[in-house]
Amino acid sequence: MAFSGFLPTGALLDSLIHISNEVSSMEKFPFVQVRNTSTMIRRTKLLLSLFEEIQETNTKLPPSSILCLTELFSVIQRVKLIIQGCKDGSCLWNLMQTECISKQFYVLVKEMGRALDILPLSLLHITTDIREQVELLHKQAKRAELIIDNREFQRRDDLLRLMASNDEKNSKNKGFVDFDKVKDTLSNIGLRDPLDYEEEVSKLEAEAQRQAGTGGLIVVSNINNLIYLVSRAKSLIFSSNEETEKVKASSVQYSLTALRNFDLSSSSQMIVTNIPDEFRCPISLDLMRDPVIVSSGHTYDRTSIAQWINSGHHTCPKSGQRLIHMALIPNYALKSLVHQWCQEHSIPIIEHPSSSLSELERSSKGQRNSSENAIDHLSAAKAAVDAVKMTAEFLVGKLATGSPEIQRQAAYELRLLAKTGMDNRRIISEAGAIPFLVTLLSSQDPKIQENAVTALLNLSIFDNNKILIMAAGAVEKIVDVLELAKTMEARENAAAAIFSLSMIDNCKVSIGAHPRVIAGLVRLLREGTSTGKRDAATALINLAVYNINKASVVAAGAVSLLIDLLMDDKAGITDDALALLASLLGCHEGLEEVRKSRVLVPLLVDLLRFGSLKGKENAITLLLGLCKDGGEEIAGKLLMNPRSIPSLQSLATDGSLRARRKADALLRLLNRCCSHSHNTF
């Protein structure tokens, strides 16, 4: 195998450490593949220690070790994808595929073992502890067997029996054979509230679309059966809960009839206080319980705007613009946010009398079976997607041709719509919103600019949109917003957008190469609010993965600023500042600049004692980096500080694995320095 395709050693180690940290920091395990996931994360953490140790030695590596590291990079990449798939994918579908996924984990463990076969541990300058850990990991990987959790097998069998009994009894009693069994089975898989059920249905629908081209009709049919099962179970389980709540309400003489007989606007004003302005209908100034968009791009409550139109008006109440059509398009994004706000403030969601069609349908069809309700739910889900598509296309049209006021409102609506799910982000980009939003970044209207950059930030969460935003030439204009925007929120969201876009490795280089990006982020780090400083710091940390960007961050004056922020309790970004300083030690310019500080060493010693877990790790990383390779002066300062040795000894005993390893290394280095000074005298 030729080595010309390999990354340079420094970049390879940076990439390995970066991706290993991503895998190691995955905290919330999926409900399936728990054993395989936890075991693989533990193995990755051990490899992370190896990679960091190799990087710290800063010596030339043998070709076989480069080949091994390249293979391990490929393995860990696939580990990340599988674990992410288990976390973000459908629990039910992953459970049905448990044997197949377990085999994928098994294959990766074996590939990890084969890669370690060619790692020349004896030629690497690493500590005995790390060498022993890697040797043990190698032996375990070679002896590893296929792990299939018996509990997951049992849950899958329960699920299959549930589906079989459901099909068998469906035509007889329109319900499940064992209601409690259904609830317990789905609860064990992680479905415990209505939102869990809705999210699972969305994930299954996405899986069905992915499988449609490759999985065949049988696979898609099986997924559709699961969708039907979950929808039907949700309808039964939570409609039962609603009946229970009604009984409880009646027992305390809560009169629903009296509540319905109240005038809606007056009763809602009695219940709801401190409504956010964006949730108020411009006509009634009351909470918008059923927000809709009219052709002018403005949003109103359905009841209020319907009364306005029915009374003979054909203009937008807010702008005075003539309505080119009378269609009322549901604003699902805003409705979702309103409902969420109501739930957080314990405010009941009261349906409007004007939208009583659904109420009449529910009352007249109250005897319908649960299977029809499930089908109605699926039809509604498809209708919701179609409505989002129509809404997005409508709003994009307003971005393209509307007046500044309409563009401001349309950008705001897209900002909200893009906040509520991956499907919405995909649909908005497919509607062609990104180029228009990028153009609006140059608007002289502060709110248009703020809404546009925030909408792009929300859209960029969907990975495919990152590429489209970069291709639209957005970086230049996002930097303009970062530097020149009139609102701090716009500047902060511009920094967050840069962070989001730079999550793709290729974008890190191109964004970092822009002459004003890093300087703009450092300026926000100096001038921003706590949120702005944190956004700027995280973006800089992400860009500083590459050495060429590290030098630019140092040149922009970040080092002295970061040290000042460590002493500023109000800034609230101590951990981020430490992480960025530790990263900047990786380039010569950064190391020299950090060593110039007279106040940093005492600060770091205090952080060893009082910092957070992450803060202690970064503080010890900084101290170790400063003392190595010509850092005798820093080592001398440490030895003279009466708190340093006790703090290091405490960390070496009680710290995290990474902190203990670095504390041991620093104590050995200080011991050598102390011995050398005695021998000199």
What does the model show?
By secondary structure, this protein is mainly α. It has helices at residues 9-24, 34-57, 63-88, 91-96, 98-117, 128-143, 150-173, 179-188, 194-212, 216-251, 256-261, 264-271, 302-310, 332-344, 357-364, 370-401, 404-417, 422-430, 433-440, 446-459, 463-471, 474-484, 488-501, 505-513, 517-527, 530-543, 547-555, 558-566, 574-584, 588-595, 600-610, 613-627, 632-640, 644-654, 657-680, and strands at residues 291-293, 299-301, 329-330. Among the domains are: 9-148, no CATH class; 151-166 and 177-237; 277-345, Herpes Virus-1; 386-513, Leucine-rich Repeat Variant (Alpha Horseshoe), CATH 1.25.10. Helix content is 72%, strand content 1%. Strands 2-1-3 form a three-stranded antiparallel sheet. The chain is globular and about 95 Å long. Residues 1-7, 168-177, 242-272 and 351-380 have low confidence and may be disordered.
What can be said about this structure in brief?
This is RING-type E3 ubiquitin transferase. This protein is mostly helical.
How do the strands and helices of this protein lay out in sequence?
Layout: H1 9-24, H2 34-57, H3 63-88, H4 91-96, H5 98-117, H6 128-143, H7 150-173, H8 179-188, H9 194-212, H10 216-251, H11 256-261, H12 264-271, E1 291-293, E2 299-301, H13 302-310, E3 329-330, H14 332-344, H15 357-364, H16 370-401, H17 404-417, H18 422-430, H19 433-440, H20 446-459, H21 463-471, H22 474-484, H23 488-501, H24 505-513, H25 517-527, H26 530-543, H27 547-555, H28 558-566, H29 574-584, H30 588-595, H31 600-610, H32 613-627, H33 632-640, H34 644-654, H35 657-680
Antiparallel strand pairs: 1-2, 1-3
